[in-house]
Amino acid sequence: xxxxxPRPGAGVLARLDVPGLLRxxxxxxxxxxxxxxxxxxxPAGDAAASGKVGPADAASLLLALVxxxxxxxxxxxxxxxxxxxxxxxxxxxxxxxxxxAADPYAALPGFVRYLQVFVLxxxxxxxxxxDAHEFRLAAGCFVVLGLVxxxxxxIQFATHTGASYQGADIRAVGTFGxxxxxxxxxxxxxxxxxxxxxxxxxxxxxxxxxxxxGCAFALVVPLVLSFSRGAWIATLxxxxxxxxxxxxxxxxxxLVALAAVGVVLVGGLxxxxxxxxxxxxxxxxxxxxxDQSVTDRYTMWAAxxxxxxxxxxxxxxxxxxxxNRDGHSSLGLSSGSDTAGAGQAFIKQxxxxxxxxxxxxxxxxxxxxxxALAGGWAAVLVAGLRxxxxxxxxxxxxxxxxxxxxxxxxxxxxxxxxxxxxxxxGVIVGLAAWWALPSGDGAGFGARVSxxxxxxxxxxx
Length: 461
Fold this sequence. Notes:
- The chain has 461 residues and is mostly helical.
- The chain has 18 helices and 4 strands.
- The strands form 2 sheets. A two-stranded antiparallel ribbon has the order 1-2.
């Protein structure tokens, strides 16, 4: 008989059963990689490179492949006809827009990109995520991503190694670089919303809620230092909605705490106070005294509308906006956006989209494409809100799913897809659809695989 003392932590590892967890949850590994691979630094100039397949994109393709294999084995959710329609309709609109484009071959890369982001990735998330526990694991990856990228952004601001902003290299952009100034702001906002929802959710353990609350407050700092007006507006709207859904009393407490943090950071410590104040003031001046970036945006919005009027049903075709921009733009459009800093030399970045997802879809895909895409998003949002109001399912999952989707739909009013973080849009649509869409077999995934009921699964109605 061995008298050797057990190694410290051996009992914990035995109870944890890591091999068993990997066997059960291995289909989630590509999903986690799709989110966390955005932590990898990108070479200067690659953040906004068109047509490049980054690590996160490769992971998302592996996610779709795993979903296909699991579907052949019968180990995915069964969707209702409504779920199939919502997830599959965008593919029909994309096919129509590609076939009717002036140059279908030039539109083909756009077809592949849209199919990846708005069909394959959301469908894979809906079909592979089996229960609330796996949903939380996927959502937690957004918090990790936001914290790490946010920390890099804060260091950039403090050491003047960020992107150029008003003559100083202080804009927090994380590893995305100045070519994708919205990248860090986007992932930080995602993490902040997930953390806020978890902090307000009644069903989670108090320790988890306290940690989530701390993460949410920490993520406010890099979001402010991103100087992204669009991200601020979208985050404020989504967070307020999540707080109201969680309860008015808790919402008021969080609002007071956030106000206190803002006063301390900007007022007391002077964290970019003058620049933040100037950026906030500029939000109210978009019509009376707009800066050049706002003027460019208005000009491109008008160009997108003009393209749509030319071909209202099918648009000018995927990837058609850049080719048709000059013929539909006024002389007020500048030659491009100046980018520099964060390890990149000065580059004049061309303006190749209207910076409004709805107008981009309308101009390139027409009413058919807009109805297929935006109609599906609206259906998911309405179904998700109705399910939460009915008190069905796990409440923290509903808060997270609705908060993320509302942020994305709000952000689409003044931004569109582009850059490495685009693939996360598909994950968010998938998580929201997971919450909103019922399963076609009336039982959770766990019930069909293990023979046991899955009360916290998406199909437990």
